[in-house]
Amino acid sequence: MRFDTKIGIVVREDLAVWQKLNVTAFLAGAVAANHPEAIGEPYEDGSGTGYLSMFRQPVLVYAAGAEALGRVRGAAVNRSLDVAVFTEDMFKTGHDEANRAAVRAVPAEELALVGLAVFGPKNPLDKTLKGLPLHP
Questions:
Q1: Distance from C-alpha of 12 to C-alpha of 99, rounded to nearest angstrom
Q2: SS3 label, residue 7
Q3: So where are the chain's domains?
Q4: pLDDT in tens, 16-60
Q5: Is the CB of residue 58 less than 8 Å from the CB of residue 7?
Q6: 20, 45, 120, 130: which could form a disulfide with 81 (CB 3.0–4.6 Å)?
Q7: What would the DSSP string read from start to end of 70-105?
Q8: How far apart are the first and last CA of the chain?
Q9: Does domain 5-129 have CATH number 3.40.1490.10?
Q10: Closest Cα partner for 19 from 93, 86, 94?
């Protein structure tokens, strides 16, 4: 099945495994919270037990260095794609309000990005993520 939109998550390649998983989960949640059209119907097994809905399309996870993350953020913003960011400072905070304050305190070009999610039309998103390898 082909989708008109794409979900891409880019994670800094030098993070610890637990950090990569944490960043990916938070960023995927950002896409889900802001794009209900990306969510499918709830699941149910053969016994009638219900389960939560998930994305209706694949989520592709890429690996990148710090410089590439900055380039992708800039390109995504320039192409008017929807972007969520996760910065190094967010590992040091304990709650959502502090996370927002940590991001707000730093100019866009100086954000110490450890991950970002990008959602939008497939063609501009593919151009934005071009050259990045899928996460191993």
A1: 18
A2: strand
A3: 5-129
A4: 999 999 999 999 999 999 999 999 999 999 999 999 999 999 999
A5: yes
A6: 120
A7: HHHHHHHHHTT-EEEEEEGGGGG--SHHHHHHHHHT
A8: 24
A9: yes
A10: 86
